[in-house]
Amino acid sequence: MRRQTSGFTLVELLVVIAIIGILVALLLPAVQAAREAARRMQCSNHLKQIGLAIHNHHDTYKNFPSGGWHWSSPPEFRNGTAPEVSPRQGAGWAYQILPFMEQQSIWDGAGGATLADRQRNAMGAKIPGYFCPTRRSPQAFSGGSWYGPAGTYEHGQIDYAACCVGTPAAIEQANDANIDLRNRVTNFAKITDGTANTLLVGEKRLNFILLGNFQGDDNEGYTSGWDHDVVRYANRQPLPDPRSGDGQQRFGASHPGTFNVVLVDGSVRGIPYTVDQTVFARLGDRQDGQPFEMP
Question: Whole-prediction pTM value?
């Protein structure tokens, strides 16, 4: 007698495949949300590390790093060998804190034989802690010698910016309300609004489509002094990354809903893009004496 074998019919198999497809579709947003949460946490940790490095800079030199001199200022080396420190260092805050970011070798010029070699090595370095993983992996812009030593070399980029307050022209001035001062330095004693109420460094808004290519606020690199690559305004509404134009010198990020900042006390928090503009401007000012509710 012939045995009848059991198995799935074609209809049953199609039903199972459809159910699996539905389950995958339901789980995918949760997986993506979990991945973004992990990336956001890593970004927060980068800002925590930056805040700690700035504190350690203050402990060592009794002042915060300066904002540097100008976008065209390469890293300055005393007698061509030892890096200058603030306020004599022409490069910006992100270069000045390298020894406290476990990047002493890059700070020293990564073994370059000449001054130009040391400058090129430092300017082209891709510092892992200076990049938000939601936006991009460590990246450099391949540029020419429109500033710094001659030749064609990379400019290591950065996803974080120090806070500048006041009018847009303040980025070309020495604005006493800033922590990050052009050509000058400040210290904890001058933060009269309180360290827990003052913005130090935050994520900067960029055109997501142009990452790795030229855009006016992401081309000079992390060593840049007093430039939109490393300084952003607190008197402009923060916004998410756009797909056209540039970052408009605003704070912002690739994260949905909020962007990360570190305050002067070293605490990291997410700020919603819907934050009241007046409140955000007060958060960026170290001495205005105006009360506000933390967003």
Answer: 0.87
Average pLDDT over residues 123-152: 89
Query: Where do runs of H (alpha helix) occur along the chain?
Result: 10-61, 93-96, 104-107, 115-124, 277-283
Q: Could you tell me the two tokens for 285?
A: 């000012």
- Across all residues in the chain, what is the average pLDDT? 87
How does DSSP assign 255-285, residue by residue?
A: SSSEEEEEETTS-EEEEETT--HHHHHHHT-
- The alpha carbon of 219 is separated from its chain's Cα centroid by a whole number of angstroms, namely 14
Give me Rg for the CA atoms of the chain: 23
Give the rounded percent of residues in the chain with a pLDDT score beyond 70.
Answer: 91
Q: How far apart are CA 75 and CA 96, in angstroms?
A: 9
Per-position b or e across 16-50, b if 16+ CB within 10 A of its CB: eeeeeeeeeeeeeeeeeeeeeeebbeebbebbbbb
Six-digit token string for 182: 């052009």
DSSP labels for 93-104?
A: HHHHTGGGGT-H
Give pLDDT, residue 152.
81
More reliable by pLDDT, 21 or 33: 21
Angstrom distance (rounded) from CA 277 to CA 282? 9
